[in-house]
Amino acid sequence: MDSANFPSPFMPAFECFQNELDEHHDRRERIIKASRDITALSKKIIFSLQRVRALQAPLPTAVAKEIELRTKTITELFVAVAPDLQGTNAWRYQRQISGGIQEFIEAISFRHYLRTQRLITIDEAQAEIPGGVALTADDFLLGLFDLIGELMRFAVTSMAITGALPRGSPLEVEDGQGRDVLTDLRYLRTHFEALDISSGTPGSFNGLKKDVEKKMEVMKTCVEKVEKAVYEMIVRGRERPKGWMPEATEDRAEVPREAVESY
To answer: What confidence tens digit (pLDDT) does each residue in 117-139 have?
Structure first.
C-alpha cells in the first residue's frame, strides 16, 4: 500500500507544532536582537552622562541632545518588541529581554541621580519603559546594583578633574555643604547588604542569590574605591598635581572593568 496516498492523520497536528516552534524561534530572535540594541544604546547614554560634572543641575545641552536621540531609539525598540512580550510571553521570554532592561534601568537611574541626587523609584522606571513591557522587581534591583559602578566612576573622575567630591544642593543638609556622592554610596551599600537572599520565605530575594552575590562583592569594592580616593585626596591631595587619579593602577587591579560591566 502506498503511504503517500494515505497521509497520516497525525500530520496536521505536527505541522501545527512546527508552525508554533517557528513562531517561537522567530519571536525569540527578535527579542534577543532588541535587547542587544537596547543594551548598546543604554551604554552610550551612560558614557555621555559620565561627561557631566555637577549634581542637581540641568544636563549640558550637547549631552542632553545625545541622550534624547538615543532614548527615542530605545523607545522605538521597546514599542516594536512589545507585542511579543504580552501575556504569558512576558515570562516566557523574560530572560531574553532582561539584559536590555537592566542596562536601561542603569542608564535612566544614573540620569535621574545626576538631575535630582535621588534614587529612581520602580514606578518612575516603569513609566520610562513604553509599550506595556513589564519591569520586574528583579530587573529593577539588578539595574540599581549596576548604578553603583557608574557612581564610582563619576565620583573618582570628578575628584581627579576638579579636586573635590561631587556634592548636591547645600540647602538639603544642615551643614550647608550639600550631600556628597560617597554618603549616597554608603547609604545604598547599607540597604543592599540588608537584602535577604538566603531564605525561601515570602518577600526574600533568594531567587536572585547567584546574581546578587556576585554584584554585592563588586558593589562593596566600588564603594571602598571611592572611600580610598577621598582619603588620598584629603591626606595627600596637596602633594599631587591637578588631574592626578588616586592610585589608578592599583585600583584598576582591584576592580577589573569587565567585573563592573558584567553587573
So the answer is: 999 999 999 999 999 999 999 99
